[in-house]
Amino acid sequence: MQYLTPFQPPEAFDMLERGFTLPVSPIADDSTVAFLRYYPDGKQLAIAFELGSDSTISVKITDHAEVISDITIEGVISYAFQSWDNQPIMRLRFEAGRSDVDLRIHYDPLPTVVLSLLRA
Length: 120
Description:
By secondary structure, this protein is mostly beta strands. Helix content is 5%, strand content 51%. The strands form two sheets. Strands 1-2-3-4 form a four-stranded antiparallel β-sheet, with no helix packed on it. The protein has a four-stranded antiparallel β-sheet with strand order 5-6-7-8, with no helix packed on it.
């Protein structure tokens, strides 16, 4: 699907292939794309992209419905599926004003979010 924004979120097939599912209840806002991944120990990883002139990513990790991590950052310009210490990750890049931000979402074997500020 093509969106009227410079940033294009991951295709559902790419996320499903990596163990994510689509939310059961529909999202009221057509400009939001969301994916969920469930873990046997009761944790859940939720990734949502809000698309617009300043695309936003929200990443939430819950453990038995208790929020243990919740990060939202504006200005997403790209993502890539990579490997970090032999673990699959989604890595995100941000617009010029936030180009020093590095966001890694580790999704296998357990959910972890690493937010770093890069130094020039």
